[in-house]
């Protein structure tokens, strides 16, 4: 699997957009980018995934660069409840591939 | 309610005493997986299963066993627990090929 690099921590003001970067410069053509988050010590929660087009759902937007070597998860209006660890994962084919590797993630702190 | 359940949620045990952590899902998912989470190391996959009687190693399988005799259950077995297996354990499930895994609430295991 391609390796991902994320900043260890970021801050964001409540109500502002949170932009979380992820570098995956060794990504292969068949590998997807997807994001999970973990609030405190709860089980991780799926956020979004994409291959090469930008994606948006009710939780977030995912912007993938044209060369696919990096991506940004955008939480458009961060709230205090968005404080969590955010994991960027690269893998071909979701759970069909089987083995999934979570990195260290980014600790996002949303402050009032 | 669709969910992944784990039991027990908390367990303190002694070195060498065999234990089993159960995981059950009610969503008819083919894929199930176990992870452990340790400070500074993130989430690491222990074992996964893509269907009944099909299991495979993740990144850190040493010291663990699993079985998948029924689609809904995926127990994690520690035959001879050691202190380095003290960790927070998560079970997850999904439809095969999906990018969205559903995680259980976690089991905090302490081995003394």
Summary, kept brief:
Chain A has 112 residues and is mostly beta strands. Chain A is 0% helix and 45% strand. Chain B is mostly beta strands and 112 residues long.
Order of helical and strand elements of chain A: EEEEEEEEE
Count every helix of chain A, treating DSSP H or I runs of 4 or more residues as helices.
0
For the secondary structure, the number of strands of chain B is 11
Biggest β-sheet of chain A: count, sense, barrel?
5 strands, mixed
Q: What is the end-to-end distance of chain A?
A: 38 Å
| Major beta-sheet overview of chain B | 7 strands, mixed
Classification by helices and strands of chain B: mainly beta
Low-confidence stretches of chain B: none
Distance between the termini of chain B: 36 Å
Content of β-strand of chain B:
over 45%
Multimeric organization: heterodimer
Strand content of chain A: 35-45%
Largest interface: A-B, 24 and 31 residues
- Overall body shape of chain B: globular
| N-to-C series of helices and strands of chain B | EEEEEEEEEEE
Report the uncertain regions of chain A: none
Measured as a percent range, the helix fraction of chain B is under 10%
In angstroms, what is the radius of gyration of chain A?
13 Å
Extended strand count of chain A: 9
Radius of gyration of chain B using CA atoms only = 13 Å
Strand order in the largest sheet of chain A: 1-9-8-3-4
Describe what this molecule looks like in 3D.
The complex is a heterodimer of chains A (112) and B (112). By secondary structure, chain A is mostly beta strands. Chain A is built from no helices and nine strands. Chain A has a five-stranded mixed beta sheet with strand order 1-9-8-3-4, with no helix packed on it. In chain A, strands 2-7-6-5 form a four-stranded antiparallel beta sheet, with no helix packed on it. Chain B contains no helices and eleven strands. In chain B, strands 2, 4, 5, 6, 9, 10 and 11 form a seven-stranded mixed beta sheet that branches. In chain B, strands 1-3-8-7 form a four-stranded antiparallel beta sheet, with no helix packed on it. The model of chain B has no long low-confidence stretch (mean pLDDT 95). Chains A and B meet through strand 3 and strand 4 of A and strand 4, strand 5, strand 9 and strand 10 of B.
């Amino acid at each position: 699997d391609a390796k991902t690099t994320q900043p260890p921590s970021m801050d964001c003001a409540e109500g502002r957009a949170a932009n979380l970067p992820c570098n995956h410069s060794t990504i292969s053509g068949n590998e997807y980018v997807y994001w999970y988050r973990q609030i405190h010590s709860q089980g991780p929660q799926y956020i979004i995934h994409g291959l090469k087009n930008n994606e948006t759902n009710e939780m977030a937007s995912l912007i993938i660069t044209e060369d696919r070597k990096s991506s940004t998860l955008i939480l458009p209006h961060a709230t205090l409840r968005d404080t969590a660890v955010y994991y960027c994962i690269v893998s071909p084919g979701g759970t069909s591939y089987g083995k999934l590797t979570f990195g260290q993630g980014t600790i996002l702190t949303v402050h009032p | 309610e669709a969910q992944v359940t784990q039991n027990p949620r908390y367990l303190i045990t002694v070195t060498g005493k065999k234990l089993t952590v159960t995981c059950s899902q009610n969503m008819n998912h083919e894929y199930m997986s176990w992870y452990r989470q340790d400070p500074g190391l993130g989430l690491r996959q222990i074992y996964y299963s893509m269907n009944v009687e099909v299991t495979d190693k993740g990144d850190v399988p040493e010291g663990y066993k699993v079985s998948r005799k029924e689609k809904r259950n995926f127990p994690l077995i520690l035959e001879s627990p050691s202190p380095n297996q003290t960790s927070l354990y998560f079970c997850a499930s999904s439809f095969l090929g999906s990018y969205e895994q559903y995680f259980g609430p976690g089991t905090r295991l302490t081995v003394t």
